[in-house]
């Protein structure tokens, strides 16, 4: 079963258009959604959550139409965690207990302890990172099968970010679970994701298995003359200066005499976006 199926959705706003966009997230996998500010990542996530309605196309989550009640099967953390400002963690936990039929108080307590969150302080006093940790604790405490996370590592220190990535890896060891995660910290996504989707100016540039992308593409540093001698289809993005040239290339289309180094997912996105 696929955890997410997006088929040709499109959404138009004044000054911005998303799509047509199609992508699939298989169960048991993590999909990283990458794009610059304004690329359409949050618009896509809100469409998955029914918070906006595409002008066309279809969305299915966990094999069901988006109109189905999927609240209990979906854990969500948006870039702004919306909880009552005056409440403390024990009060928030009581609300969640009646909001989700599969709520696990013991699991929630473990995450509160793991994330070192103060139970006696009001939510409004929390830092952005603390609010994000609380949102994650809630999303992980009601037996969700699909996690949808919009910038969940924002405001978190490197140790906590690493811990979160370990949690997501553990979550998807169950082949019935899946995660969609967007982040500006591309190195985090490279560590944890099975699939990568690039959004640029509302268009999906690619959606592919991460390992296949890293195998297909490489980074070439050479002269402008050597670059010009390559067939155009080999070059997916380039930069030429008075000191030389560098390019993102398709390894299959470049002669073996060239020394091509591995590319990172961040370099891959930056150069494809520039070319786009």
Describe the structure.
The chain has about 280 residues and is an alpha/beta fold. About 30% of the residues lie in helices and about 30% in strands. It has nine helices and 14 strands. The strands form three sheets. It has a six-stranded mixed sheet with strand order 6-7-8-3-9-10, sandwiched between helices. Strands 2-1-4-5 form a four-stranded antiparallel sheet, with helices on one face. A four-stranded antiparallel sheet has the order 12-13-11-14. Helix 3 runs antiparallel to helix 4. The two termini are about 35 Å apart. About 35% of the residues are buried.
How would you summarize what this structure contains?
With 276 residues, this protein is α/β, with parallel strands linked by helices. The protein contains nine helices and 14 strands. It has a six-stranded mixed beta sheet, sandwiched between helices.
């Amino acid at each position: 079963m696929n955890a997410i199926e997006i088929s040709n959705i499109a959404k138009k706003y004044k000054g911005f258009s998303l799509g047509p966009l199609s992508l699939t997230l298989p169960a048991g996998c993590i999909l990283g959604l990458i794009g610059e500010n304004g690329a359409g990542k949050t618009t896509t996530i809100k469409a998955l959550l029914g918070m906006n309605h595409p002008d066309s196309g279809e969305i299915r989550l966990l094999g069901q139409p988006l109109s189905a009640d999927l609240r209990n099967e979906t854990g969500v953390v948006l870039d702004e965690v919306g909880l009552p400002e005056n409440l403390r963690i024990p009060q928030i936990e009581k609300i969640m207990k009646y909001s989700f039929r599969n709520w696990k108080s013991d699991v929630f307590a473990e995450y509160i302890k793991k994330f070192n969150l103060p139970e006696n302080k009001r939510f409004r006093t929390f830092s952005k990172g603390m609010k994000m940790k609380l949102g994650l604790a809630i999303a992980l405490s009601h037996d969700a099968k699909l996690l949808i996370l919009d910038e969940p590592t924002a405001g978190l220190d490197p140790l906590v970010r690493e811990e979160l990535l370990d949690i997501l890896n553990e979550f998807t060891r169950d082949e019935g679970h899946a995660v969609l995660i967007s982040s500006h910290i591309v190195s985090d996504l490279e560590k944890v994701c099975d699939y990568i989707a690039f959004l640029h100016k509302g268009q999906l540039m690619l959606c592919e298995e991460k390992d296949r992308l890293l195998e297909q593409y490489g980074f070439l540093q050479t002269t402008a003359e050597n670059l010009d001698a390559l067939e155009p289809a080999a070059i997916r993005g380039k930069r030429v200066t008075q000191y030389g040239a560098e390019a993102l290339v398709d390894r299959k289309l470049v002669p073996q005499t060239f020394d091509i180094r591995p590319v990172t997912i961040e370099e891959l996105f930056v150069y494809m976006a520039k070319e786009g």
